[in-house]
Design goal:
The protein contains 13 helices and 11 strands. The protein is α/β, with parallel strands linked by helices and about 300 residues long. It folds into 2 domains: about 130 residues, Nucleotidyltransferase, domain 5 (2-Layer Sandwich), CATH 3.30.420; about 160 residues, 2-Layer Sandwich (Nucleotidyltransferase, domain 5). The strands form 3 sheets. The protein has a 5-stranded mixed sheet with strand order 3-2-1-4-5. The N and C termini lie close together (about 10 Å).
């Protein structure tokens, strides 16, 4: 079985094709293709309220390329979703409709709760017996999910993101809203799990070789200070960051740091997973029975 996931984010667009087989009764996910394209829809959406023609044209061409790859790999099922940038653009729905008409690719413009639920499909499998606060910082929004007894008991999306707040740093009132939400919902010490491209890169920069995927707050602050002391160009050439990562990683680190300090967390677990992986889990669950005769 071959499945494809398209994650149309505010800072970049990710595309993955996965081949799934069974080994000794367990599903084995093998990545066949992965593309991360730095198309920053959030620059248009959060500044102008719409996706500009030049950016829209690039998005349409990119979706055409993905459609061709889906056909070449003979993918059995796919799912494409877009998050806050397209959700908040006044022409987002029209653009999604145009892509559907041109290439038959349906783009689901999802809200923060749906985005969080998809990511949690993977995380809860890794931590079935743990209570935790899941922090997902994207380009345009931050999702907080409180999981207790393997159930999502609370979820909230905030208009706070690495691209959005690079453009508009006036976010003190949103941090106040987050603090109030945490005060009401998180009443005891709890584990933190962080997802998103920026926290994954921060973990990579930490140099942790233990394989534990655990990042201490102290180390996060050290890396944040290092990043802040460098210009964007220095982050690119000294730390080998992609240009579209080098300018948003600092505002993202601030969000993780503030939330961790609010709940007095001393560390955060950084799994190597994201929205595209949650999409794959959903597609697998939806198609397992249909294709089980082929395994």
């Amino acid at each position: 079985m071959k499945l494809a996931a398209i994650d149309i984010g505010s800072n970049a667009i990710r595309f993955q094709i996965t081949h799934i087989t069974f080994y000794e009764g367990e599903p084995y996910f093998k990545r066949l293709e992965y593309v991360r394209f730095p198309l920053r829809l959030g620059d248009d959406a959060f500044t102008h309220g719409e996706i500009k023609p030049k950016t829209a044209d690039k998005l349409i061409k990119l979706m055409h390329a993905f459609k061709i790859l889906i056909e070449l790999y003979e993918v059995d099922d796919f799912y494409a979703c877009a998050t806050s940038a397209m959700r908040e653009s006044k022409n987002g729905s029209a653009l999604a409709k145009k892509i559907k008409q041109l290439y038959g690719l349906k783009i689901h413009v999802i809200d923060g709760r749906q985005e969080a639920a998809l990511i949690l499909r993977v995380i809860k499998k890794e931590f079935p017996n743990e209570d935790f606060l899941h922090i997902d910082v994207g380009g345009g929004s931050t999702e907080l999910n409180l999981v207790v007894n393997n159930k999502n008991v609370e979820v909230q999306s905030f208009q706070l993101g690495s691209v959005r707040n690079q453009k508009d740093p006036g976010n003190a009132h949103i941090f106040q809203d987050i603090q109030q939400w945490l005060k009401e919902k998180v009443t005891s010490s709890i584990h933190c799990i962080g997802t998103g491209g920026n926290i994954s890169k921060i973990y990579e920069l930490s140099g942790n070789r233990s394989g534990s995927r655990l990042l201490s707050l102290k180390k996060l602050i050290t890396i944040q200070n290092q990043l802040t002391s460098l210009t964007k160009e220095e982050r690119i050439y000294k730390l080998h960051l992609n240009p579209d990562r080098a300018d948003v990683i600092v505002p993202a680190s601030m969000i993780y740091r503030e939330i961790m300090q609010m709940i007095r967390a001393t560390s955060i677990f950084v799994p190597n997973t994201g929205l595209k992986d949650g999409i794959m889990e959903m597609l697998f669950d939806n198609n397992q029975e249909k294709f089980q005769g082929n395994f």
